[in-house]
């Protein structure tokens, strides 16, 4: 099981945009990993993050 320590402040201030693009989703999840330990990224989210980082 993952370390379920949620940073509620961060989540309240950083909502995922409605109809987010893949780039927006990748950026959101990268920041989420830096600021909150509530859950581990799924395999699909990790692929999205890896693709975004490779393109940078």
Q: What is the number of beta strands? A: 0
N- to C-terminal distance:
32 Å
Fraction of residues in H or I helices: 55-70%
Order of helix and strand elements from N to C terminus: HHH
Mean pLDDT: 93
Characterization of this structure:
- The chain is mainly α.
- It has one domain.
- The chain contains three helices and no strands.
- The chain has helices spanning 8-13, 22-35, 43-55.
- α2 crosses α3 (43-55).
- The chain is globular and about 30 Å long.
- 4% of the residues are buried.
- The mean pLDDT is 93.
Defining traits:
59% helix; 56 residues; single chain; mainly alpha
Set down the secondary structure blueprint.
Elements: H1 8-13, H2 22-35, H3 43-55
Helix pairs in contact: 2-3
How would you briefly describe this protein structure?
With 56 residues, the protein is an all-alpha fold. The chain is built from three helices and no strands. The chain has one domain (8-55).
């Amino acid at each position: 099981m993952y370390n379920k320590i949620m940073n509620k402040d961060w989540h309240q201030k950083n909502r995922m945009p409605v109809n987010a693009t893949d780039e927006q989703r990748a950026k959101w999840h990268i920041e989420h990993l830096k600021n909150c330990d509530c859950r581990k990224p799924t395999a699909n989210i990790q692929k999205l993050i890896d693709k975004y980082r490779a393109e940078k």
